[in-house]
Amino acid sequence: MTLVLDTSVLIDIETKDKGTMEKIEELRKVHYTPAAITFVNYFEFYFGAISKNIKSKQLMLEFINKFNCLKASAKTGEILAELKFKYDDKGLALPLADLIIASQVIENNMVLLTKDKDFEKISEVRKIVL
Question: Is-contact 65 11, C-beta < 8 A?
């Protein structure tokens, strides 16, 4: 099954965080297809690169563009609406960005790799929380 890398994990990979890198090496043995990202992850990472100097920004963009970026669809919107309704109704106002990421992971039948504990609240998404 394909992993979708959350922004927190992308940052750790880019900065070569030892603990995250070791965990990813373990996961590659099971999830051997190339990892993907959502457009929200691309946006968050790109937004962080904007303030960098030209060389750093270029390196960051070369890094992020190595990943397949999942596209949103009408089905993404349907899943998102259902998740938002469910979790708002439960009094769990989760960030819209997290719900969009979850929607794309669910739609594409993938596994989210994240460090964000908010995703633990979304039972519908397959995830690995580091």
Answer: no
Secondary structure letter of residue 128 according to DSSP: E
Q: Alpha-carbon distance 87 to 8, whole Å?
A: 23
Predicted confidence (pLDDT) per residue in 17-41, tens digit = 999 999 999 999 898 899 999 999 9
How far apart CA 113 and CA 29 sit, in angstroms, is 15
CA distance 114 to 130: 6
Residue ranges and CATH numbers for the domains of the chain are 3-129 (3.40.50.1010)
The DSSP 8-state label assigned to residue 6 in this structure reads -
DSSP E strand boundaries for the chain: 3-5, 36-37, 68-69, 111-114, 127-129
Neighbours of 17 (CB within 10 A): 17
Decide: pTM greater than 0.85: yes
What band does 91 get if pLDDT is binned at 50, 70 and 90? confident
The pLDDT > 90 percentage for the chain reads: 91
Sequence-separated (6 or more) residues with CB below 8 Å from residue 60: 14, 45, 48, 49, 52
